[in-house]
């Protein structure tokens, strides 16, 4: 994965005190999935003239039952995040993943109380 961005925040108290607000993003992910088990490992890095931040994520999930494509699929997932600029390390988030046809959504709350929601639709 690769990308570029620009920090719109004009505060000196933003991540790593952006002086030059443009940055790049690079990441790598690998995963393995069966109808019952899901695991993924990923790493990301933000780079720019005045920023160096990185993170790593590991996920392990289990499906309590095997569903067909036209049925609701449910996964129980544990996610562990390490981010170079976070005070609390590591960040642990139990969540539920729901998959119905071409729509996937995940929701959970980390052990420290941070909410997680992610949704993806394939067209």
Short recap of the structure:
This protein has no helices and eight strands. It is an all-beta fold.
Draw up the topology in text.
Elements lengths: L1 E5 L15 E12 L3 E12 L2 E12 L10 E11 L7 E10 L2 E7 L5 E7 L2
Antiparallel strand pairs: 1-2, 2-3, 3-4, 4-5, 5-6, 6-7, 7-8
Task: Walk me through this protein's architecture.
It is a single chain. The protein is an all-beta fold and 123 residues long. The protein has strands spanning 2-6, 22-33, 37-48, 51-62, 73-83, 91-100, 103-109, 115-121. The protein is built from no helices and 8 strands. It has one domain (2-121).
Given helix and strand content, the structural type is mainly beta
Low-pLDDT ranges: none
* Beta content: over 45%
**What can be said about the biggest beta sheet?**
8 strands, antiparallel
What is the residue-averaged pLDDT?
87
Task: Describe this protein with a few key phrases.
mainly beta, 8 strands, single chain, 123 residues, 8-stranded antiparallel sheet
């Amino acid at each position: 994965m690769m990308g570029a961005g620009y920090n719109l925040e004009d505060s000196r108290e933003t991540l790593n005190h952006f002086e030059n607000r443009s940055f790049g993003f690079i990441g790598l992910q690998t995963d393995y999935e069966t109808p019952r088990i899901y695991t993924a490992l990923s790493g990301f890095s933000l780079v720019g003239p005045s920023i160096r931040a990185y993170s790593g994520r590991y996920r392990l999930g289990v499906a309590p039952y095997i569903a067909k494509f036209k049925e609701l699929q449910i996964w129980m997932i544990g996610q562990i995040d390490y981010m170079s600029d976070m005070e609390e390390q590591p960040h642990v988030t139990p969540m539920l993943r729901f998959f119905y046809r071409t729509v996937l959504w995940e929701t959970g709350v980390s052990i420290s109380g941070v909410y997680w929601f992610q949704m993806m639709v394939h067209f």
